[in-house]
Amino acid sequence: MELKGEIKVVIRGNLASKITLAIVVIAMTFSPLTVLADNHIEELELQDLLPQYNNFEWTYHGSVEYGHDMQISSMMINEMSTNYAIEGSVHDMSGGESDMDYSLNLDYSVRSDVIIQTKSEEVMLDSEYDEIELIRTPLKEGTSWSQEVENSEGATTLESRITDVENTDEGWIFKVRYEDINSDYYEERKIQEGVGAISFEKLMFFEEDSYPMGYSLYEAASGVELDIDFSDVSGDEWYVDHVAKLVTLALIEGYPDGTFRPDGQITVAEFIKVAVESLSYYQEGTSSVWFEPYVSKALELGLIEEGEFEDYNRPITRQEMTKIIIKATGEEPQSGQLSFADSSEVEAEFAPYIYTAVELGIIKGYPSDNTFRPDRTSTRAEASKLFVILVEELINMEPFTAEEALILEVEFENRLYH
To answer: 216 and 354 share a domain?
Structure first.
């Protein structure tokens, strides 16, 4: 599985907000797989309101040709919060003649019950306050709270409230209004699931007059960009998101002729290699047989057993890869009754792993006839979906501490997003 071809798939705008991807700490931090496919608001968490990719970019346009761009530069997960570090710049409408500082730095601190925005900037059209609580739980219309804020003129209190909740094809949108109890000043934001702020408005004062000013998201230039450089992947197949994620994480590659061969069979060796790398282990040194280091590591990690496979170049079966996936997650296999039409064809040693995978939602049967087809060999496209689920499941299990994140920064240096 090597090299690439020439097709580039760019995912921007609304589509980007629907994509879920785990985010590795600092280098590629992963967040829980909770973006709502079924749009049940009661399952929504605060972190779901922000992007799932750490190379997400926002572009905003607003009043009097105002605009600014920003991108997530790093993310950190610890026991108490998830912190997004964001960098960007305000569009210089002076054509370079101004000596003002157009840079901006934001930090989103996502805690269990609140998202806090902290900013440092000189000319950004945003909050009057360098620190403000953007939204609080519960995520429903009518939720209200008071917050103490401070600017250069002193401290005041903002009465804050979720005034509207809208369910759209792109996700839930929450309108939040913040009113100063000591003046007519207000701020208002729309925060969209998977995107963050999509619009901002505040009351500006000039001499005796006041007027609203703000900006909104320019969707066509916002989102994430994923490269899929394969000549046989057009970009609209069911598996394209899974492949894109794994390519971005440097977990899979193509063939020397520039193809991905999604319908091609995946061998035991190839499956073991990606499983091992999904656990953030990489080949050290050289070997006469390319897959030997990965097999050794898989044995060390307990993903496979000595003598389990005699031929690593043969295609792997669905029941074999399910066993490896469950072992990689660290889940203890559970016994239970399989409900597939061909459950009797599942070998006894694999049954607990398949049952556990079904219970975890990692695998399903074929909808046409409710079969599992345990001895069928898996395609590269099908395996890609499994690996994405594996990585997301792993990081969803246990948050990283700040100390662990610093170690991972070095370990994942070669997989930074650019």
So the answer is: no
**pTM confidence score:** 0.57
Name beta bridge partners: 29: 24
* 3-class SS of residue 251: coil
Q: Is residue 380 part of a domain?
A: yes
Residue 377: what are its φ and ψ, rounded to 5°?
Answer: -80, 150
**Chain segment 88-107, per-residue pLDDT in tens:** 999 998 888 888 999 999 99
Let me know how many helices (H) and strands (E) the chain has, helices first. 8, 16
CA dist., res. 203 & res. 216, Å (int) = 15
Residues of the domain holding 336:
234-415
Verify that 76 and 122 share a domain, yes or no.
yes
Q: Find all residues with CB under 8 Å of 255, minimum gap 6, and list them.
A: 1, 2, 3, 261
Q: Are 252 and 392 members of one domain?
A: yes
* 229 located within any domain: no
pLDDT in tens, 126-160: 999 999 999 999 999 999 999 999 999 999 999 99
